[in-house]
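FIELD: query
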Amino acid sequence: MSIRTEQDYDSATPALQQQMNLARRACWRIKTSSSESLFKTIVSAITDTDTEAPLPSKDKNKTRIEPQTAPANRNTSCTSSNWRGMISKRMLLICALVLILEIAQARPNTIAVGVASGKVSQDIVDAVTQLNLRRSTPVDAVDVGLDPTPSVRLLRAEPLKSGDQDGGESHKMERYPLSSVDFARVKTPFIIGIWILSASIAKIGFHMTPKLHLIFPESCLLIVVGVVIGVVLYFCTDVAVSPLTPNTFFFYMLPPIILDAGYFMPNRLFFDNLGTILLMAVVGTIFNIATIGGSLYACGKMGIYGESETPGLMDVFLFASLISAVDPVAVLAVFEEIHVNEILYIVVFGESLLNDAVTVVMYHMMESYNEIGLDKIIAQDIASGVGSFFVVALGGTAIGIIWGFLTGLVTRFTDHVRVIEPIFIFVMAYLAYLNAEIFHMSGILAITFCGITMKNYVESNISQKSHTTVKYALKMLSSSAETIIFMFLGVATVNNMHVWNTWFVVLTIAFCSVFRVIGVILLSALANRFRLHKLSRVDQFVMSYGGLRGAVAFALVLLVDENVVKQKNMFVTTTIAVIYFTVFLQGITIKPLVKILNVKRANKRKPTMNERIHERFMDHLMAGIEDIVGKTGNYNVRDKFKRFDNRFIRPLLIRDLKEINELHLLDHIPMQSYERALNKKKGASTSNADEQSRRQRRNSSISFRMNPFRNINDMI
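FIELD: result
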């Protein structure tokens, strides 16, 4: 039988542990009966020897033995019988100790299982347990089962009860309670859920108020509610609600907002104004970074901020790279309420989407240059930064388009499982975003173009119920994410880590506003040279005034390493001040300014059949003219892509392409002609039914002409 150690006992199953304890009890009962008599004999012998040879008492009154007489007395007292008695006494003591150890070795955990009547300390329990585990040789289950001894009775194992670690006493038995309260376990998520619920109720009250929602944007209300909750949590509770962390924002809050915008984006308007959007997003953002960063650094060299709070060159440009970009969340929150015309909306919102590539590249470039050091930057670092812009932008776009095609291919085979169609749209778009983040590409561009791509193919494969589910689920997710983002901005405002520098805050707000206006005027003048629909002065003013900053800048400033950038807290405070200025001041005043300036508003009606026919006719006509002239323009590129799409891509990704093409005739021909064309395909039976229906209508019209009053009475 193998020796089991403590590791074997710990790794054993409960059944094996029970058998080991039972075997120890059996061994202990066998040994106890044979060892009790021997133990009593030894104890009596020890006591007898102690009585026969008592130790000499130490009397203080006796005189001290002289050194000369001590050897003689010692020799006379130490006889042979006394030596044998002392040796036998020591041997008996040793045998008694060995026997006690053997009894303890074979005895089971009676102290741990509650055999002992008194209270035993935890140290004794641990000592006995360790001794039993390390030195015992327990009987296996097979040995116990084959033991022929009739006197051995295997007792039922009792559950182990460990002693109290603090007091040294065993736990007091507690009965199962009827109910219990454990608020500390769910304290933080419960409070977060409560104030999100309060924000939703505040939104309901905000829209029910007759005049409040006409003056203030919804984002302003959410920030105010977040500030109030942050004050309550900071001063009245000890709940540590973390602010809007970068991972929470970029991985959970931002994707549903961008997917909703990309999926329901007017694709034709977006691609018709793509040149202006790219001009504003790329050139405009680089212009703002260069001018804002250079101006702030020049003011710092003049000593305006103070000697201790003057940031370096790379620190200033790092801050300028994150504060210069227009925020898509803030633009969506404000522009959807003022309902400007489609061209203004698509230009400003498209700029906020596409400048993500520039913002990400410039931010990481300045962060890397800051770590390298300004004096150690070489030409290779600058070339890599310029090349990374094209890699990030084009890579994110390609990843989004590929995932959009994959979504269309998957939904082609979901005609028997309609209930899971919305899942593919949500999950695969989110995977496109995460896939771009894995390779440090632009996740916003990836999920935007994924939504644009899947819109063209997925809508033809999914059912109408799935389309309704996707529509309202995306709206709900994006609205909830916007609520949480702006509330977290308010909550994150209330803390004791702010570093306020008045001149730095004021100059940052001034430079952001001034250089935004200058950049829009210059780039609009350049874009108008190539546009048929010119951007007027009023449009340029709305574009300049609509350059809002929001949660993207706040999340990026939280990513700054405080060990590298010493003025991180000052940058965080300034970013919050800029966000509040743009959201509150510009967001509140842009609606009355749009009314005063008589900006063209959005027309929500759908185009008529006549407008669609003429639009398609003009597209083909302009494509033919461009082809004849030899110029490759928008119409020519669109026409070639549609031919390629209809020939190769759509047959691969769309399930019932012929039926879809027949249904699309509704957009181009009158209803009567469409019904007549379908009836011709159905055969003679369908034509006979159509003839009968026409005869009935003719007969009813004749009868009405002959006796109109009788028909009116029948109708009444």
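FIELD: remark
The chain has 30 helices and no strands.
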